Amino acid sequence: MTDQPLFKKAFPVKGDFASAGEASVKVKNILKDIGYDSGVIRRVAVATYEAEMNVVMYGGGGEIVMAVNADHVNIIIVDQGPGIPDIKQALVEGYSTATEEMREMGFGAGMGLPNIRKNSNEFTIDSEMGKGTRLDLVFRCGG
Amino acid sequence: MKLKAIVDVLSLESPMETLDLERDVTGGYVSDLLSDVIAHTHAGDIWITLQVHPNTIAVATLKELTAIIVIGENAPAEAAVSKAASEGIAIFTTDLPAFEVVGKLYEMGLRGQS
Ligand SMILES: Nc1ncnc2c1ncn2[C@@H]1O[C@H](COP(=O)(O)OP(=O)(O)OP(=O)(O)O)[C@@H](O)[C@H]1O
Ligand SMILES: [Mg+2]
Fold first, then answer.
1. Which of A18, A23, B21, B86 could pair with B4 in a Cys bridge, judged by C-beta atoms 3.0 to 4.6 Å apart?
2. Strand-strand pairing, A132-140 and A122-128
3. pTM score of the predicted model
């Protein structure tokens, strides 16, 4: 028997700052509307926002796919951007290649990826230079 | 504490046309780094910051913050104000330095939540 999600939906992420964050708000609102576990909603909101901002700032746009299951939520975030040359370094708190302009807007603390990792129960990051970056996240109820 | 009490004590101004001042504020947070705010604020918080652009509003929406107090000469951009209006987030401005704003809020009994 395959494990079919109760609900699955993809959200496009545009590469511009004006609409940045909107896909995460949609993801959160869907989970709220179906009355999902509030702890999972809180963690998904933080992680998805950070991942969406990275897709906007570095990935040039991409997609968020959410799959809701009875006891966990899967979130996949993909972009076809430049990729991350050194994933280990990118995961270090405080490491950032944000531009001066991004920093003036309050981005570039180098906390995004660490926040995503902290808020998810499973965190997998794959990145290939010139191809793009993919995050696979799992959020478990009661976890 | 009601938003109205805070607006009165600090004489806050707002670029928004309509405001619901009966909403509750349950805590406060000060930061200009969005990753810090998304990680550490709680629903119901009032957020004191220099930052005001549409992404700021996305953060406030996701964290269900009650209001944002913008410090300094940074006039909130129209795009941020209209987005805040549609999300039910109140934006205020003040000439007071951040230190004074936070001090007064603390004096009123508001606390940061850890
Ligand atoms: N999708 C991506 N594509 C390419 N590079 C990325 C991507 N996501 C992250 N990075 C790289 O990893 C670094 C660290 O990312 P992280 O989200 O932790 O911090 P930041 O985005 O720089 O700052 P903050 O998230 O605190 O605003 C980025 O500065 C960037 O160099
Ligand atoms: Mg980031």
1. B21
2. antiparallel
3. 0.95
